[in-house]
Amino acid sequence: MSALDDLAPVPFHDADAPQRARMLSRLADTQLSVALLREPVHDEVELQIFDLDGVRTALACDAEDRLADFFGKPVAYAALPGRILAGLLKSDGAGLLVNPGHPSEMLLDATMLDWLTGALQAAPEADEAHLQLSAPDRDVADALAAPLAERLADLRGMVAGAALVGVQGAGHAVMIAGAPVDRQPAIAKALSEALAFLPAQPGGVDITFAQTAPPPGALLFDLSAPVPEEPASRPDRPPILR
Q1: Is it the case that residue 92 has pLDDT exceeding 60?
Q2: What positions does the domain SseB protein N-terminal occupy (predicted)?
Q3: Nearest Cα to 102, choosing from 178, 165, 236, 8?
Q4: Is residue 37 within 8 Å of residue 75, measured between CB atoms?
Q5: pLDDT in tens, 43-88
Q6: pTM here?
């Protein structure tokens, strides 16, 4: 099972819109092995393009052994992040088949890749306003808790903590604490992308690094490092065998 498979309790094309969006968000950050016609020459690659019901389609897997298993033999491939591959195929008007035969199998046509690349262009707006904070709306918290936790887990080590809060007259905000100033634009971009894949929330959801304590009732995300498990204690004497 891969990270994409873990997000596919039901097949991609049978999943609801929020679940499909989470899979596409993860796909964008996944290193994919895409099938080539031949080994790359001087960093130039030529993708294998298949005709699937009249649609020109490339084939990629999230592990090279999955790609070899599909073809029944080793095959030339290039390793590309999903976001880069989506942009290349969009410009060529082709689609993408991902992980055929696995739980996360998905067939993305040119329209879907166009939507994906558009979502990846999401960027936060600078906001220096003084925020009047409150607890988040319950429905918003329920909709955003799992996908935000998933994205914030990728940022563990770069941020000390995060909270989802309501903002009076302005929807909601994700408050980020302990992020170095030089990493804040990249962190904000990553979170904005994640939000772009989710259903729009009333008033929108902003990203802020304001040094303000979260209000009572805020949805808090614990980003502390996992505590390593203690090794099992060893007895002073060997067990008595009977």
Answers
A1: yes
A2: 16-115
A3: 8
A4: no
A5: 778 899 999 888 899 999 999 999 999 999 999 999 999 988 998 8
A6: 0.61
